[in-house]
Amino acid sequence: ALVMNEIERCQTLAERRQLEIRLRDSEQRFKDFTRAATDWLWETDEEHRYTWFSSNVETVTGVPPQWHYGKTRVQIAGTDVNTPAWQNHLAQLDAHQPFRDFELCRRGPDGLTWVRSNGVPVFDEQGTFQGYRGTGTDITALKHAQAQAQELQQRYFQAIEAVGEAFAVYDTNDRLVTCNARYRQLFGLHALQMQPGLLFQELLRVRLRYGEIEEAKGHETAWLEKRLERFRNPQGPFVQRHADNRWIQLREQRLPSGELLVTGLDITELKRTEQALQQSETQFRSAMEYSAIGMALVAPDGRWLKVNPALCRFFGYAEDELLATDFQTITHPDDLDSDLHYVQQILCGDIAAYQMEKRYRHKTGDYIWGLLSVSLVRQADGEPHYFISQIQDIHARKQAEHALAESEARYRALYIRTPAMLQSIDNKGRLINVSNHWLMIMGYTREEVIGQSVGSFLTEKSINYAKKQILPEFLRTGYCHEVPYQFVKRNGQIIDVLASAIAERDAEGRIMHSLAVLVDVTERKRLEAELIRLARVDALTGTWNRGYFVTLLDAEIKRARRHRKPLSILLCDIDHFKRINDAYGHPAGDSALCHFVAAAQK
Known about the structure:
By secondary structure, the chain is α+β, with helices and mostly antiparallel strands. It has six domains: 1-32; 37-138, Beta-Lactamase, CATH 3.30.450; 148-266, PAS domain (Beta-Lactamase); 276-398, PAS domain (Beta-Lactamase), CATH 3.30.450.20; 411-526, Beta-Lactamase (2-Layer Sandwich), CATH 3.30.450.20; 544-601, no CATH class. Helix content is 41%, strand content 25%. It has 20 helices and 20 strands. The strands form four sheets. Strands 2-1-5-4-3 form a five-stranded antiparallel sheet, with helices on both faces. A hairpin with a 2-residue loop joins strand 3 (99-108) and strand 4.
């Protein structure tokens, strides 16, 4: 019996040693895993105070385990604990329920740290709650990345909403990714219909169903197939007429990602302006005589056909002297090739008009700078008839630019041109970023404009307008829409733009930055002014027409009443004028009227 007892005792001791060895191995593995893991382990007591942390919490977060002991997670929270998420979590703790992936912001000696926590309740053998055991993961970098991504996405949406044109992006399966409000307005669809995922084909079918596309009426199926083919293989901008007589210019461009960028612009007013200009061509020829800007009609081979007094003064020639030359003869040799290249393009129909700055030889032999704008009038059969040329005297400006360029040669490079403008401005009015389009239009490099005051690119009138009328309201609302400004390009040219801007505010609501989109409307304003001028002149005689005479007469009558002075009106008639028409025909009658007006003006 003694032998058996001894054997059993030895076996028990051996088993105990084996258990101790396995326990040490298990503890060592646990420590190794803990040191190697990016997560840490923690324990709390029944009052949710931290009682233990694995040592790697300091390796991961830089905060030692001892700092946490005795504190509850509410006490170390770095954000408001009255949120629904926090209240739900605290309810879970009070109910002794397990939880997963709870995100809390810990305020520690190292600042704010975001932690994702998992935990399970611990009970003793009698079922009494002892606390929690769980894991923690540092997700600060992830939260920062998410915040940056959200901010970038918000800026992206703000940018496309601020764009003056309709804007949309479709994926490679022709499904809508995003669009702005102008895109929905352009096509008359409610926001609920124009949602991401909408097939472009379905958009077209809805518009065809309601008869919105004028050019598709009567052959909708064929039009749909052709339109889808163009959509999938974009070929540049095109114009579409809607059933409500709106004209829309669309531009579709395939992006490197395979997505399709669609922009649209309502050009109805521009179309109407073009039609009005065509109807006023005869009046324009008469109005040029009284223009303060040099104007001329030029033959396709370069001969001067008709010149106005302002142009004669610009060149220093008498009218007959100037008509005996051509534009090639008085153009600076270095500028002639560029001018002739534009002429060839406009004659071939590649461009409708062109504008360039060039040097002309004055009668004195000196070269002077002029801003040349040219368009072509064609005959009924499409053949070139004559050029309409305008030449503005920019010699003083070019001299000033030359002096400025010399003084800034160390800091500035040659300008380049481009068509679109996007800019970001800080709360001091300095440019912090501009798009490539902005740089191309203004003619600057990025290094030259970043940090400069945006006011340095505006005219004095626009600066005063912004300070007195726009900025106070913008600082209050953080938004402005299509505000007219005049920008001064690097070459000194003034362009008219419509600016739409959105402010970016900090957490306290202070404006930190603003994003602005600028649309160049210089040509449109020039055409509108030209229409007004041409509408005042009689096509035959070159004098003010009846409508403008009535306007002037009304003003003079009011002036006479205001100053209590008499007003005389002289009406001239031509006796037996009908006999001239009957005997010699209407051309002779027209000639008689013109001679009569010329004599009356003398």
